[in-house]
Amino acid sequence: MKLADLIVRTAEAGLRLQHPDGSFPAGCNGPYGDPETPIRNTAHWAITLLAAHRLSGGEQLSAGALRAREVLMAPDARPMGATFLCRTNPDKDFANGLIGQAWVIEALATLHEALDDRRAHEVATQVFLLHPFSDARGLWRRVNVDGSHLTIDATFNHQLFFAAAGALLDPLGRSEIGALVRRFMDRTLDGNLEVRSTGRIRHASGPLRIQARIRHLLAGLRSPAEEWRKSRTLSLKEVGYHAFNLYGLARLHRFWPDHPLWRGRRFRRALRYLRSTAFQSSLRNPFGGPYNPVGFESALAIETFQGLSPLDLGSPAAWVERQLSHTFDPESGLMTQNTPDPQTLAARFYEVTRLKDVDLELRLA
Q1: Is residue 295 within 8 Å of 289, Cβ to Cβ?
Q2: What global pTM score does this model have?
Q3: Which domain does 137 fall in, by range?
Q4: Over the stretch 6-19, which tens digit does the pLDDT of each residue have?
Q5: Domain at 114, CATH number
Q6: In a 3-state reduction of DSSP, which class is residue 334?
Q7: What is the pLDDT of residue 45?
């Protein structure tokens, strides 16, 4: 089976999930268990439907994408006229930090590219520029659904995917958005991309400051068992998100392939981690394959960066097949197996649409 055929098949299966109002079923943010609105998964599915329509020309697919567009553009999606309402956990921001906004912005940018939808581009641009940017740190602050400014988003992959969404809005880097994304990449090279000695990308943005180091040291002295548990969880998380980070970096490379970031020592070490024994477990890591489709993410990283590593990073097709063999349900035609959040994982199939077409030896009858 060709990957292109699978994209069309999965998109057609996804149409059966679409509600009459155009939305898709909400998930629970995977292992985090946060109640989510339909906005995130509707954004993901819009990209898959557009890709499948491009491959097949099916009118139902384009109609489904247009219905999804109406959900993303409706007043209820931004109930207070600021950022998108992505989750409803009262203990967290309702925007889901930068990452929640990035997922919607990339869908609107894709709608603009596929359909010349200028209004979608305008809304995405407006929401992107709502987020204050620290030029000194090269990082964005979070903005809640009421427009209030929150702290800098401390999670590196959130910053990275927000930058990648901005690159879609300004692919030639000629506007204010392009300048911000380039500054983010400059600061990523200078230190915001932190890589452990093993090659694993740190979850936090930027170097660990001396105050934070002292706090961690004191916490370990007070409660070593609790600190060990937190350290173990962080390690699992970083393994599970490693390919997700490389996927985001691959997206930026497509727009700025000559940036010195790709020649940096930390980035090369992060690439080598794909060959590590620890990374091979990521398909079954709760933050990996059951939530972040690391098979698709690794495939794009390999497809993009193979020439930058002296090591053989593996086959993109093989990684796609590994992800599908673990999570794809042949009966439904969706990625809903071995996951605590089948609605979200099914929607995250969209990540595979950025890959080149390949032959898949896996039988998905």
Answers
A1: yes
A2: 0.94
A3: 3-354
A4: 999 999 999 999 99
A5: 1.50.10.10
A6: strand
A7: 98
